[in-house]
Amino acid sequence: MTEKIHNRVGVRDWRAGGASGGFALVVTVSLLVLLAVIAVGLLTLSTVTMRSASEGTALAEARANARLGMMMALGELQKQLGPDQRITAEAGLNHEYAAVRSHWVGAYRSWLDTVDKRPDPEFLGWLVSGDRDALAQDSAADGDMVAEEMVRLVGPGTMGKNTSEFEHVEAGKVNVGEHQRYAWWVSDENTKVRAPRPAAIPTSLAEARTELVSAPQAGIERLASFEKITRDNERLHRAITLPSLGLVASNPAGNGTEGGLTAGTHFHEVTTDSLSLVTNVRKGGFRKDLSMELETSPRKRPTKPL
């Protein structure tokens, strides 16, 4: 009787030990799977981190090159147009220009007041990136080689797909190291009309007469892209770019879209930010304001040169 009891206990102990061993195997396999998942996740995370770091480095380099290009453009602008006796003109005014160079801006020395006879225009250089020696020649806008590689800065993405290549602008790439480049181009803002600011519609005869003294705003509503703009639209204050001006004109397609005219179509005609100085390009300095002298009586007007 005693032996039977011991045998049963032994059988029970053997079965209990087998169940415990099977559970440990399942736990071990589960832990291995969990470790494999963690390893794969860490590997994926490290790959994404490295890719993000690489993209961040490339973005920082691109921004640095863009800032360098802007500083070079400002330096050339100050060099060529710093003195008051300088004027600018686009290549399309007097050149058999290449298709993508008609809007290059050239700097010229003005007709100085010390010279009685009007001289021929003295060309100083084109305000665009590339070989400075080549760009110092007036013929560079006719299609001469000014850089080993050119890039289009103004194209369908800015003006729309239905615009002519004569409205596009290219510039020469300037190498920075082995694999980096930048390019720049100066746009002639003084030949563009400034987008209007909100102005109240006159409600009295006196206000209407006051407006007749000077034009209250440019009539850009005559352009097809801005025909829905009204002068008393308060949203004109928010138009800081051509695309936003297109939104004000109830034209959601503010940049290049296929079909129809957009705000970008008038990239070379309209600007939202234009400032100027009234300078004397012959003598230098600011021009004289003759408003007060012209409004005084003939007897009180100055007799000596102003």
Task: Give a written overview of the molecule.
The structure is a single chain. By secondary structure, this protein is an alpha+beta fold. Among the domains are: 111 residues, no CATH class; 84 residues, no CATH class. 36% of the residues lie in helices and 11% in strands. A three-stranded antiparallel beta sheet has the order 1-2-3, with no helix packed on it. A two-stranded antiparallel sheet has the order 4-5. The protein has a two-stranded antiparallel ribbon with strand order 6-7. The protein is extended, with a radius of gyration of 36 Å. The protein starts with a helix and ends in an 11-residue tail after the last helix. The relative contact order is 0.09. The N terminus is likely disordered.
CA-atom Rg in angstroms: 36 Å
> Could you give the order of strands across the largest sheet?
1-2-3
Mean of pLDDT = 79
Number of strands: 9
| Percent in strands | 5-15%
- What is the end-to-end distance? 139 Å
What structural class is derived from the secondary structure elements?
A: alpha+beta
Helix content: 25-40%
Unreliable spans: 1-12, 251-260
- The SSE order reads HEEEHEHEEEEHHEH
The shape, in one word, is extended
Q: Count helical runs.
A: 6
Describe the main β-sheet briefly: 3 strands, antiparallel
Oligomer: single chain
